[in-house]
Structures are given as structure tokens and as C-alpha cells.
Amino acid sequence: VKLVESGGGLVQPGGSVRLSCAASGLDIEYYSMGWFRQAPGKEREGITCINTRGHSTYYLDSVKGRFTISRVNAKNTVYLQMNSLKPEDTAVYYCNARSVGMNYWGKGTLVTVSS
């Protein structure tokens, strides 16, 4: 099983970036998918998740209204659209796939928000 995040990089405050998480070795159709992040010196935190059919989502208050999670099960891919980025959004962003008794992580992609 592999989850591979991509799309990270350096972005200016107020800018946007879209992260992708491509899954292999599992069918994401049967998994709740989420994004976590870990900022320097801080613990990893869950910022958003989406249920198997994409009908239900959750967002951490600090990203609500700025970030959008989506999934395309046919492509086995999950996305995180991040708008109005702030310096405090700087972190390594991790993709997560979770089902009963199973929990998988990607290796992360770094997003740096700086001018």
C-alpha cells in the first residue's frame, strides 16, 4: 500500500496550492480519507477528512472556509485545495486512509508559506 502526496512547495501568503494524494495497493472507495499536517516543533494535527462517498466532510476550524478536500475514487486520488494561505499553514502535509482495522499514511509533502 502506498499513498504518495504531491503538490507542495513554496507559496506566498494569500496564495493557493492544490495537494494530491495518489493511492496504490488499495481501493480508496472503501476508505475514509484525510489530510493531516505537522508544523515545525508541533504535533501532527488532523485538518480535514472526507467519507467514502464524499458526502460528508470535516474541517479544523483554522482551515474552514479556506481549504477544500475532495476525492475521485475512479482515479484513486484525494485532493486538498488550499486557498488564502497563511504563514502558519507552513507544515508537512500527510495523506491518510482509514478503514476498520486499517490505517495508512503517506510520507508527506512540505508546504511553505512565505514571502
Set out the fold topology.
Layout: E1 2-6, E2 9-11, E3 17-24, E4 32-38, E5 45-50, E6 57-59, E7 67-72, E8 77-82, E9 91-99, E10 102-105, E11 109-113
Parallel strand pairs: 2-11
Antiparallel strand pairs: 1-3, 3-8, 4-5, 4-9, 5-6, 7-8, 9-10, 9-11
Descriptive account of the structure:
- Strands 2, 4, 5, 6, 9, 10 and 11 form a seven-stranded mixed beta sheet that branches. The chain has a four-stranded antiparallel beta sheet with strand order 1-3-8-7, with no helix packed on it.
- The model has no long low-confidence stretch (mean pLDDT 97).
- By secondary structure, the protein is an all-beta fold.
- A hairpin with a 2-residue loop joins β9 and β10.
- The chain is 0% helix and 54% strand.
- The protein has no helices and eleven strands.
Give a short summary of the structure:
With 115 residues, this protein is an all-beta fold.
